[in-house]
Write a structure and sequence with these properties.
The protein has 221 residues and is an alpha+beta fold. 25% of the residues lie in helices and 41% in strands. The chain contains four helices and 13 strands.
């Protein structure tokens, strides 16, 4: 899995007032914590964080935090983003939770699903429905994938791919329910109307043939 390097600083002072001040100065208030790890209040540069997230969009990545204290000492900690609050108006992060990674301990993360190929059902008049965009995967950090690629080219109208159909590497487990569909191809209103019209035309032809047959029999009599 890819690793992003991100600088951080220990922050002093908590509360809404201090957090608001940090954001006005171009920082995102955050917290770093983990298993048997004391939580540390930190701050990261807003622009650097956004650039890192945009660069790795669509994939899960580890984040190597270079945490610098007020005394100038810097320590590096490997982490993942466990939670991130976004400002609904400005569309910018306003708070981030970084969770420390231990390479010998299993970790559960949301792994993006990447769909490849064009379903044959689309050419048949169907519509693609992406029911899930991420899956909760568990495993050792070194085994976890950046994303899960799913080939959907063979899907016809009415077909779907469920979680149990997705191939996984050894040591990785999906925590979502096996029988849940992640993608499907469904008939559109247009295709349904076409089928109905085709059925009506076929019925009309059958009725016409039956009437002609009856007419011939009447003439014979």
């Amino acid at each position: 899995m890819k690793t992003i390097v991100l600088n951080a600083q220990v922050r002093e002072g908590l509360g809404k007032g201090n957090s608001k001040r940090l954001r006005s100065e171009g920082f995102v208030p955050a917290i770093f914590y983990g298993y048997e790890t004391e939580s540390v209040a930190i701050k990261v540069n807003t622009s650097e964080l956004i650039r890192a997230l945009v660069k790795e969009r669509g994939e899960t990545a580890f984040i190597k935090l270079g945490i610098k204290s007020g005394k100038g000492r810097k320590v590096e900690k490997l982490s993942v983003i466990k939670d991130m609050q976004i400002d609904t108006i400005g569309k910018k992060p306003v708070h981030v939770d970084f969770y420390e990674i231990r390479m010998d301990r299993t970790l559960a993360v949301d792994v993006p699903i990447i769909f490849s190929g064009t379903p044959v059902g689309i050419e048949e008049g169907g519509e693609l429905q992406q029911l899930k965009r991420t899956l909760k995967a568990s495993g050792l950090p070194s085994d976890l994938p950046e994303s899960l690629e799913v080939d959907i080219s063979g899907l016809s109208i009415g077909d779907s791919i469920k979680i149990k159909d997705i191939a996984l590497e050894d040591g990785v487990q999906i925590l979502d329910l096996d029988d849940v569909a992640v993608v499907s191809v469904v008939p559109t209103r247009t295709s349904l109307m076409t089928e109905e019209e085709g059925g009506e035309e076929e019925e009309a032809v059958t009725e016409e043939a039956a009437s002609a047959s009856e007419g011939e029999e009447a003439q014979t009599e």
